[in-house]
């Protein structure tokens, strides 16, 4: 019984800490807008690198290893929810950011998967040129 109580308490504290550390909308805007996000995602079991530049007008310009250039739009809510839609699709839910250190962030996607990304200043990959 003690073990079950400890596990339950641990996970409740961990999820509470995560929510408390999550960036709000103003912080997400300050971090992303005008900058490039770099990371890795999994598509059909394959790990792919991606780069996304977040323009101030709500447009995303991106590229990734296998499929090349793409574009999308984004909206940032006051609670820190970043909604993105790509190539004319629908918003796919909320992405939440937690700063780990310096330019490293943890991102939780709409399905609950967590990944680590890096933010670099400006349009470091010249993505806004297409």
Describe this structure as you would to a colleague.
The protein is of the alpha+beta class and 130 residues long. The chain has one domain (2-122): Lipocalin, CATH 2.40.128.640. The protein is 22% helix and 42% strand. The protein contains two helices and eight strands. It has helices spanning 2-21, 25-32, and strands spanning 36-43, 46-54, 59-64, 68-76, 82-86, 96-101, 104-108, 114-120. It has an eight-stranded antiparallel β-sheet. A hairpin with a 5-residue loop joins strand 4 and strand 5 (82-86). The radius of gyration is 16 Å and the shape is globular.
Can you give the mean pLDDT? Answer: 86
Principal-axis shape: globular
- The chain-level structural class is alpha+beta
The largest sheet is:
8 strands, antiparallel
The CATH class, by name, is Mainly Beta
- Strand content is 35-45%
Poorly predicted regions are: 1-17
* CATH-defined fold name: Lipocalin
Read across the widest sheet, the strand sequence of neighbours is: 5-4-3-2-1-8-7-6
* Percent helix range: 10-25%
- The total strand number stands at 8
Order of helices and strands: HHEEEEEEEE
Work out the radius of gyration.
16 Å
Annotation keywords:
130 residues; alpha+beta; Lipocalin; eight-stranded antiparallel sheet; 2 helices; 22% helix
Short description:
This protein has 130 residues and is of the alpha+beta class. The protein is built from two helices and eight strands.
List the helices and strands and how they pair.
Elements: H1 2-21, H2 25-32, E1 36-43, E2 46-54, E3 59-64, E4 68-76, E5 82-86, E6 96-101, E7 104-108, E8 114-120
Antiparallel strand pairs: 1-2, 1-8, 2-3, 3-4, 4-5, 6-7, 7-8
């Amino acid at each position: 019984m003690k073990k079950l109580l400890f596990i339950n308490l641990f996970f409740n504290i961990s999820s509470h800490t995560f929510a408390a550390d999550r960036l709000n909308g103003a912080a997400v805007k300050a971090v992303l807008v005008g900058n490039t996000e770099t990371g890795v995602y999994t598509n059909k079991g394959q790990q792919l690198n991606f780069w996304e530049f977040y323009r101030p007008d709500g447009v995303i310009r991106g590229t990734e290893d296998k499929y090349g250039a793409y574009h999308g739009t984004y909206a940032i809510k006051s609670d820190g929810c970043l909604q993105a839609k790509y190539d004319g699709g629908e918003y796919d839910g909320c992405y939440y950011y937690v700063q780990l250190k310096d330019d490293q962030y943890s991102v939780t996607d709409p399905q609950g998967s967590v990944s680590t990304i890096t933010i670099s200043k400006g349009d470091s990959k010249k993505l806004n040129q297409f």
